[in-house]
């Protein structure tokens, strides 16, 4: 599994969320979040692919919490949507891990 394969799993989300960037650096992966209030980036160094995947799962939940929640009739509908999306992404990730073992 590669850095690019993780980005491919989240490609649609990363295209839509203009506040998140992920960049490969010598020591791992730099997860950048644009803070509109502070008008600055928050950066976190991520050392492995599992950590990167889990971080992006957290990001996607927050993204949909703010971007899509209004379109759901209830909190439960929103939670079901996010849970199903995360399961789908986890399945893709597990398939990648199994194919590379």
Strands, count:
3
Strand arrangement, major sheet: 1-2-3
- Kindly, what is the distance between the CA atoms of the first and last residues, rounded to a whole number of angstroms? 9 Å
Query: What percent of residues are in strands?
Result: 15-25%
> What is the helix content?
55-70%
| Discrete helix count | 4
Give the CA-based shape: flat
Low-confidence stretches: none
> What is the string of helix and strand elements?
HHEEEHH
Secondary-structure-based class equals alpha+beta
Main pleated sheet: 3 strands, antiparallel
Radius of gyration: 14 Å
Which whole number gives the mean pLDDT?
A: 88
Protein model, in words:
- With 101 residues, the chain is α+β, with helices and mostly antiparallel strands.
- Helix content is 56%, strand content 21%.
- The chain has 4 helices and 3 strands; from the N terminus they run H-H-E-E-E-H-H.
- A 3-stranded antiparallel β-sheet has the order 1-2-3, with helices on one face.
- A hairpin with a 2-residue loop joins strand 1 and strand 2.
- Helix 3 runs antiparallel to helix 4.
- It is flat.
- It starts with a helix and ends with a helix.
């Amino acid at each position: 599994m590669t850095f690019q394969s993780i980005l491919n799993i989240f490609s649609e989300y990363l295209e839509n969320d203009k506040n998140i960037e992920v960049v490969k650096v010598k020591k791992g992966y730099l997860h950048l979040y644009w803070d509109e209030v502070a008008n600055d980036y928050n950066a976190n160094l991520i050392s492995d692919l599992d950590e990167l995947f889990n971080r992006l799962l957290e990001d996607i939940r927050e993204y949909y919490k703010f971007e899509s929640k209004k379109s759901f009739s209830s909190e439960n509908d929103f939670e079901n949507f996010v849970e199903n999306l995360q399961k789908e992404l986890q399945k893709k990730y597990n398939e990648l891990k199994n194919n590379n073992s």
